[in-house]
Amino acid sequence: MDLFAHTSLCFILYLAFPFNSELLREFFANLCINPTFTALTSYLNRRPVEITYQDCVELLQLSTTGDKLHIIISDPDFDWSTANHFLRQTNAPFHIGETSSLVKDARTIQHVLRTSIIPKVGDQVHITPLLYLTTFYIMAHREFNTADLIFQYIDHLTTIRDPGHKRKPNLALGHLIAYVLETKYQLQYPAPPNLPTLFYSNNSFNTLHSTRLHLGDEEPQGAEEEEAPALAPVLDPIPLRQYSQFDQNKKLDEQTKPVQDCVGLGLSQSVLCFSLLEFICNGQRD
Fold first, then answer.
1. Chain centroid to CA 162
2. Where on the tree of life does the source sit, at the highest rank (predicted)?
């Protein structure tokens, strides 16, 4: 984990905390984010709950200082040449979306991020601007606000940008949400954990760093980059299990496996590791 040792992401990369799928769906269905993106409020079992910046610092060991990456990537005139120099050894001023030309350390970092911190499913050929910039900041040892990164990603999950375009739900980071709520509120959800957590250890990270991930294991060319939007938040404090659009996700309850290290997931074949995350994040397909 040396590539991440200087960041505040190590704790959540190591965190193995199984959770219940209904808890996650109920949390997202009732979720509200304050205008400053410093607090998440929701309802579980008709009880108000909140996750704040301070919770991220105390319970998840995240930082709340440094650059806010979503602001940087929203600038259409941002010069990507420095990032490209670090990640590809080129000086192109624009964002390059392919992963095939990334240097080895960059490929490892972006793979870990896309399977844990900023889950991105279905397409390993392309890299989003946020994922790309985060990889650059880690490689360049630049400080960035990791709590804001998580909060902004959760907001992205709960926003439908094109209501006319049907998309599959992509509710992620359930282990972080469940860990904070159970630790902060001593919350005992009625249903037992039924979803495993993908986490990293020193052994699995070293295995990943030395595998064919860096020898051209991309998916076939032509795959389209896929954003990670999900269902819009429902503000009334009504348990999510009353919402029929999630009924199909219940099949996860019977199909998931116990929590296990990335080595146990066959991380030496990194596609299998990513497939588990895709299976967890997606209860249904278009």
1. 21
2. Eukaryota
Q: pLDDT digits over 169-198, tens only?
A: 557 899 999 999 999 999 888 888 888 777
Percent of the chain at pLDDT above 70? Answer: 66
Taking only the tens place, the pLDDT of each residue in 233-256 is 333 333 333 333 333 344 444 444
Distance of alpha carbon 196 from alpha carbon 219, whole angstroms? 25
∠ CA 279-99-111, nearest 5°, is 45
> What are all long-range contacts of 26-29, with beta carbons under 8 Å and residues at least 24 apart?
26/239, 26/240, 26/241, 27/177, 27/181, 27/240, 28/157, 28/158, 28/171, 28/230, 28/231, 28/233, 28/240, 29/231, 29/233, 29/234, 29/238, 29/239, 29/240, 29/243, 29/246
Q: What is d(CA 242, CA 26) in angstroms, rounded to the nearest whole number?
A: 9
CA distance 231 to 139: 33
Residue 232 falls within a domain, yes or no? yes
Domain with 140, as residue range(s), is 2-281
217 belongs to a structural domain: yes
Query: Residue 286: inside a domain, yes or no?
Result: no
pLDDT at 167: 52
Angle at 267 between CA 59 and CA 115, to 5 degrees: 45
Inside any domain, residue 215: yes
Question: Cα separations (Å) of 278 from 88, 121, 123, 168, 169?
Answer: 27, 5, 10, 11, 11
User: Which tokens go with 73?
Assistant: 């990537």
**C-alpha triplet 17, 19, 24: angle, nearest 5°:** 130
The residue length of the chain stands at 286
